[in-house]
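lol forgot to send this yesterday, sorry. struct tokens for the thing we talked abt
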């Protein structure tokens, strides 16, 4: 290994990436879309492979970085100038919960299941589906949540009300599948489940998209849409 040439190539690659990142803006860092994420990976790979490949010289590194940067810039320019291309090149947000109801079609379209949706909600400090009025899956894979009015600020502390204990929600049924372990952990039984389904005019748990229960007897239940 030639330390001198490697040092020079690393410095040039570093400067080229720095200049290109500044020129393209912050989208490559924040990874606003899947395309931004992939382009960042490819750009890093181009420089990394070029530096450690003995058959590649400095000019090849510069050309690879420059060409990839131009291609990314063209895509960004197109999406800014032509609004109709944004949904194809950048994707568009999807409303996965609308008026407190899970939009299963949007979940399927975005290859998202109930467990993944719950995981994203928990990252937004939402531990029960019952708290959500609207949830939007953004183009970068994160989720934005508008809580129901009773769960929004101001809090009870603002009105000098006595705080109450919070409880985690148990997913008893998810995607038409029973979680018997969660049913047991919640201190419930099959008799309770049968009564609950009957009360909501449901013949079998396979008809349920999601059933959540909290210890304060808060229940969220949604059937599959016909």
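and heres what i got for the seq, position by position
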């Amino acid at each position: 290994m030639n330390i001198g040439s490697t040092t020079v190539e690393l410095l040039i690659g570093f400067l080229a990436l720095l200049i290109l990142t500044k020129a393209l803006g912050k989208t490559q860092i924040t990874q606003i879309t899947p395309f931004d994420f992939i382009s960042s990976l490819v750009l890093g790979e181009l420089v990394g492979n070029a530096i450690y490949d003995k058959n590649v010289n400095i000019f090849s590194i510069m050309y690879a970085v420059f060409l990839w940067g131009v291609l990314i810039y063209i895509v960004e320019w197109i999406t800014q100038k032509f609004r109709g291309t944004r949904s194809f090149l950048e994707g568009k947000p999807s409303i996965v919960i609308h008026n407190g109801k899970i939009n299963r079609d949007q979940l399927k379209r975005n290859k998202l299941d109930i467990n993944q949706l719950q995981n994203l909600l928990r990252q937004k400090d939402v531990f029960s589906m019952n708290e959500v009025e609207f949830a939007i899956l953004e183009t970068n894979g994160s989720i934005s949540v508008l809580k129901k009015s009773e769960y929004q600020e101001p809090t009870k502390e603002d009105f000098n009300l006595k705080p109450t204990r919070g409880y985690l929600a148990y997913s008893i049924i998810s995607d038409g599948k029973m979680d018997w372990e969660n049913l047991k952990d919640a201190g419930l039984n099959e008799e309770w489940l049968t009564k609950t389904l009957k009360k909501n005019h449901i013949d079998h748990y396979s008809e349920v998209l999601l059933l959540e229960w909290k210890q304060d007897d808060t229940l969220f239940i949604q059937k599959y849409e016909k």
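The mean pLDDT is 80. anyway ping me if u want another try
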